[in-house]
Amino acid sequence: MKRPFYFLIISILALPCYAQQMLEAPRPLPGNVTLSLDEYNRLLALASRPGKKTDTPPVPYVLKHGDLKFHVVNDDVIGSIQFDGETLEAHAAKVPLASGMTVFDARHGAKPLPLLLENGIHTAILPGDSEFAVSLDAGLPLSIETGRASFSLPVPSAGNVRITLAVPGERTNVQLNHGIITHRASVNGNTEIEATLVPGQTASVWWNTREAVAPAVPREVRFLSDVKSLISVAESDLQVAALVDLNVLQGEADQFSVPVPEGFEVTAVNGASLESSEVQNGVLLLKIAGHGAATHQFLISLERPLNDANATAPILAFKDAQRETGEILVEGQGTLELTAKESGGLKRLDIKEVNPYLRALSRYSLQAAFRYHRQPAESPALALEWTRFPDSSVLAAIAERATVTTLVTSEGKSLTEVKLTIKNQAQPFLKVELPAGATILTAEVAGEKVKPVQGADGNRVPLLRTGFRPAGAYTVSFVFLHSGAPFAKKGDSDISLPKMDVPINVLEWELFLPDRFKVRAFTGDAMSASLLPAEYQVYSGDRTRGNATGFGNGIGGGTTGGMPINGRGVMSLSTLAPGVALAVGQLGGYVFDSTGAAIPNAHLQIQNLATGAAWSAISIADGSWRIMGLPSGTYQVTAAASGFQSTVLNIPYDAANPHAYRIGLNLGAINSAVTVEASAPEMNTETAAIPSKDKKHKKELPAAPPPPPTASANVFNLQQRVAGVLPVAVDVPRAGTSYRFIRALVVNEETKLNFTYNSK
Question: What are 394-410's pLDDT values in tens digits?
Answer without folding.
Answer: 678 899 889 999 999 88
